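Sequence only, no structure available. Ideas?
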Amino acid sequence: MAGTVVRTSHPGLRPWLVVAFSFLALSLVFSTRAAVGLMMPVWELDFGWTRSFTSGTAATALVVMAILAPIAGRLVDLHGSRAVMIFGLSALAAGSSALVIFLAFGGISAIGFGLVATHTVSATVEQEFSHNKGLATGIATSGSTGGQLLIVPLLAVLLTMMSWRWSFIFLGTATLFMIVCVYLLFPKGRAPDRTVREPTTAQGCWVKDLARIIRMPAFQILFWSYAICGYTTSGVIETHFLPYAATCGFGPVPSATAYGVLSAINLGGMILAGWLTDRVNRPLLLGGIYLIRGVSFLILINVGSSLETLILFAVLFGLVDYSTVPVTASLIATHVGRHVLGFAFGLVSAGHQLGAAAGAYFGGHLFDLYRQYDWVWWSSLGLAAFAGLMVFCLKDKPAHSASLDAGSRA
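Reply:
I predicted one. Tokens follow.
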């Protein structure tokens, strides 16, 4: 088949502006997702809801995200990211201003969560950079946690001083501003470059791509390990960390402060992981991240009423929270193929969201059953250790990696 030409590099500042505003867009999206954990106890008091119902709202959003993830990735592969990002941010702004919480968060905002996501940003960076891709991906995707250092504590202040509704009005307004920035600064479409040719990513070939991808053992390892990643991060921590802190006796501000510390360390952890991705054995790096994450749950189980222990957990978990993203993106690129990175990472991200949905829902269900979170944290520890062992089975440089980007599809 005839190949289409894609970009490998851009002179000037534009690629780094794409990185910067991808960081900011993810900051708003993931802060909105984190807000449900902050608002959960308040909603339960205001509306008389159970923890299972509020957790179900978060789980519904994650299922919607799982459905949209491969679609968003495929669109980025074909057409670039600007239209995908703008549509996703528009859905997020609409959801933040809606009055029906379950519909707004579990449906409208979830569309934004699914489109403006780490796999979308990773595929965008892959199109923009030819060198230091791991570092650039780490910086861009670290917005998924770094922006929460300021935004989540600010939401806690608005919640304490005013109401949860004002918190969402703030998020909706900030998202509208971000739409304008993305429209002005992101490239329209996937502009060609005359230096490197890759196989055509034709719209009619997605079924063949899907069949080829899911047969790869490397994809299966990355899919299931990333599903566990979703359970142990977005599922149980993003949804239940703040409610757990409340059951330990911590108020909204100290709880959100601890979450902000986690986010700050996570920012550095993602950038460090991106930098290391370009330099060290990636399966060892990714497996080590999962094992350290598992150990951190031992600290969380023993928090008690100690704010210092809560902060200690936030520091250790933050170091390895979303640091899986740049490493996983790099492994998908070399083990599956750069020309289908958006689609393949979208499929893997769908697994992440399904794992997260399971963690969000069953975390609430187990809390309703036992009135404590210990079983949630123990399950997370065991699954994280299993994910680390799976990833150790991968090779850093597969023998067929060069052909993935140079070969053509039947």
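The chain is about 80% helix and 0% strand.
Hope that gets you unstuck.
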